[in-house]
Write a structure and sequence with these properties.
278 residues; alpha/beta; TIM Barrel; eight-stranded parallel β-barrel; two-stranded antiparallel sheet; 8 helices; 12 strands; globular; metal-binding
Length: 278
């Protein structure tokens, strides 16, 4: 198998804290340093949230702007993907950074249960976020927590409601949502192949399932995501020393399955993204 594998680093998220792992980057400066290390390790995409100094999630477009400027300076060519997830704000606050025109932004097209709450993605908000991404030419990364999310994303793309090439990420291992189940994963892959053959897909495992799902995705010819947002440990006892350490594990799996690691420029071409900012 010779197709390059796109590796995304999920640097921060909105849940892991320094109490859980001191390596979790909170400030924009910490995020830039951590992302640069992961970029050098092989990550082509940076999936980013921003935080307040007290570690709570933020939807502040100014923080996103500073992060974007820093990434463009210190990680030239890296694909910048901002999160529109529900922990960082309510309603249209979630898309407040889209006018900054990141290369990509996450988009959840349906609701589901999280460990202690409902992750709400009502149809009117999904339609508005997708419309804003069309306006600012931001390619969605569909975060699919359920089979229905995959099928709905395919329908939206066929209807012309999603900008750019369809890119679907299977998120597996979230408590009360879809577990990291190999038979389900294989069905997801087959669904993408038969219903959206022109699309790309990737997969992310949450918690201790991260490395397992990384391997499934790489072995099956897809793309993958790793990082401290999803998992703070190298194994059940050892804390991950950095985002880069988790990316290096994914790179080792690419070597195992003879998949070259996609460079940022290769990843941009595969995803149909505009050239990197000068």
């Amino acid at each position: 198998m010779s197709d390059p594998c796109i590796i995304c680093v999920a640097i921060t998220g909105s849940v892991p804290t320094k109490a859980a792992n001191p390596a979790v980057p909170i400030s924009v400066a910490e995020q830039l340093e951590s992302t640069h290390e992961a970029f050098e390790a092989g990550a082509a995409i940076c999936h980013a949230h921003v935080r307040n100094p007290d570690e709570t999630p933020s939807s502040d477009p100014e923080k996103f702007a500073r992060l974007k400027e820093g990434l463009e300076t210190h990680c030239p060519g890296m694909i910048i993907q901002f999160s529109t997830g529900g922990r960082s704000g309510a309603g249209r606050e979630r898309g407040g950074m889209l006018p900054l025109r990141p290369d990509m932004a996450s988009l959840s097209v349906g609701s589901n249960n999280f460990p202690t709450r409902v992750y709400e993605n009502p149809p009117d908000l999904v339609a508005w976020l997708a419309s804003e991404m069309q306006t600012y030419e931001v390619t969605p990364e569909i975060e699919a927590f359920d089979l229905s999310h995959i099928l709905h994303a395919i329908r939206l793309h066929e209807a012309g409601a999603l900008f750019g090439r369809l890119y679907v990420q299977f998120v597996m291992g979230v408590k009360n949502a879809m577990p990291a189940d190999r038979r389900v994963f294989d069905f997801y892959v087959e669904t993408m192949k038969t219903r959206a053959p022109g699309a790309l897909w990737c997969a992310a495992g949450i918690g201790p399932t991260q490395i397992e799902v990384n391997e499934w995705a790489i072995a099956a010819g897809g793309h993958t995501r790793a990082g401290l947002e999803d998992n703070v440990r190298l194994d059940r006892e050892t804390l991950a020393p950095s985002n880069a350490a988790l990316i290096r594990r994914a790179v080792e799996l690419c070597e195992k399955y003879e998949r070259p690691v996609a460079t940022p420029s290769q990843a941009r071409e595969m995803l149909g993204l505009r050239p990197a900012a000068a």
